[in-house]
Fold these 3 entries.
Entry 1:
Amino acid sequence: MNKFWEGHLPAPAIRTIDDMQPVLAVPGAYPNNNLYFMYRDLSESDSDKKWLSAHLLRFDLTRIPPGTISGEFAKTKGHYHPEAPDGKGYPELYQVIHGSAHYLLQKEDLSDIVVVEAGAGDVVLIPPEYGHVTINPSSEELLMSNIVSDAFSSIYGHYEEKRGAAYYEFEEEGWRANPSYGDIDEIRTVKPKDLNCIGIPAKTSIYDLVGDDEKLAFLNKPSLLDDFDIVP
């Protein structure tokens, strides 16, 4: 574990290769190795823990070691978020702590498919209505943090039914379209969006936002983002 987190870590939730079979580009009889590790509901102090709980928020760390499965880069399973009470899909805030990440985002109607290429320190907002997969495209371990509403459960079914996201990323050939989606648009490739418009400066530690009611309110009230250009 990177020295970013000095406090106690609970036992992680572990995603194994068997767990990932429904979303792999090339499913098969692989050794059931651990693929990535999720440390959920973290806080640096009792006061932070109480604040997060009172505001229905959760701070997590995810560790994705480097590697490939039949040439496909290690990745998360992928999920969508349901609608919040205000009628908008819940967003999520990520930050790369170590390594690099490709955040593959897609709208459910496939009207937009975009990969956000992020490096250490970059902050990435998953906008309302987008599903997402995180890929580790490098030979280094990827460590990332996230803050998300604790008021919902993620929806994995769409990704499982379609055998993953609209595209797979391979070490040698790069992006390969998932045939389960039929005829789809090309991926847009972008750098992380400037989030100063919602009060989050570039490279800021997202943990430092814990305790700020105003800056994190959008995680439970996504309609607060309506007037801002936050789609990458």
Entry 2:
Amino acid sequence: MSGTIDVNSDLGESFGQWRMGDDEQMLRAVSSANVACGFHGGDPTTMLETCRIAAASGVVIGAHPSFPDLVGFGRRHLKVSPAELAADTVYQLGALAGVATAASTAMRYVKPHGAMYAAVAADADLAEAFARAVAAFDSGLAVLGMPGSAVERAADAAGLRFVAEAFADRGYLADGTLAPRNQPGALVTDPEAAAVRVVRMLADGEVEAVGGGVVRIEAESVCVHGDTPGAVDIARAVRAALADAGVPVGAFA
């Protein structure tokens, strides 16, 4: 196990009076922040505050676009056309890019959220639309996503850097996809268990699947979701375990 690993988190997802997670503490534990762009969470005030704290903390900012689904927190699979997905993506990238500039920082990468993440991982047409939208907006942006997925192939075809991601706090099925959140084993909330998983992922390139078996894993970045119960403790445990293993943490972008 060698080289630097990125630790990312989905942040800035509060909306109005509705609060999601402890962004300030998470921004002390991660190297990259996937900032919600208003479609599943996040509002202008939250986006600006998150970008400002990230910039002050030396954390790299990425956009976290979603299907337009505030009620479902972007986790419902909406039937959208490739053209709609592309337009929604560009709109959200523009919003975060402007907010980041006002916070004296810059957006460096894109990671789709929730159901959009799953859709572009599995559907070649949606993945191509997403990658082309990102490239049209800024071909220097990286795409963070599931390794071996449709979006990886689409990003490569669009000339974008693709960064493979693994999850500290989510269970994997035997086929390498994430276990649905309504299934047992979908969430890993014990900080020590999450930390052990991450070290195994990076050292051995594998993780135990829900229900048994082993899934091969490759990753340049590890995600701890900001809304997972105990997220701050999980992120801190992961950072401590990486330090003990001699793996430095640093942003990929």
Entry 3:
Amino acid sequence: MKVTYYGQSCLELEINGVKILFDPFITHNPLAKNVDVNSLKPDFILVSHGHGDHIADLFTIQKNSGAKVVCIAEIADWLSKKDVTNVHGMNIGGAFNFEFGRVKMVNAVHSSTLPDGTPGGNPAGFVVYAAGKKIYFAGDTALTYDMKLLEDENLDWAILPIGDNYTMGIDDAIKATGFFNCKNVIGVHYDSFPVIKIDKNEAMDKFIKAGLVLKLPAVGETLSL
């Protein structure tokens, strides 16, 4: 299993040849200016919520790839009205078996409005169970005690927002790892805008002192999980 980071909260998991893209936001992100959005051909697109910095490139990538979009029911309905037919709607607490493995939709504490002002239902995170690993993609969220519900999952990796202001910051992300007992973290949702700029060295130091592994891949960098 490997993951490629495309900036903000957009990354792609590749599992036995199946590509799963999360929260596509590339063309409007200056940090991802060297990423060719038309080259991305995922099999699945997982959407955590409706904000523009998570779905800005969804239509382009879905049209180019024919990917199945997995999202909350309200966003699924919105997409179907915009002629995106390959959609799988879910809701918080539900899980489904796809060809690559199982996906469970879990709670996130945030907001969710689509770019045209349509309510986007509840924000969400995902747990992906595949290839013998368990990966938690938290989406945009505050620190929430609901994360304790993942404690017995024995997660291999957690993909957590760390930019603060709109989501958890570094300190709350460290607290979160204690709730769900996972030492391996990929940080996302930082540096794209001035208000979520972080000190990477400080972040690394804090995670190391907490006995945790923090990965902050460069845009376009691929990691093995």
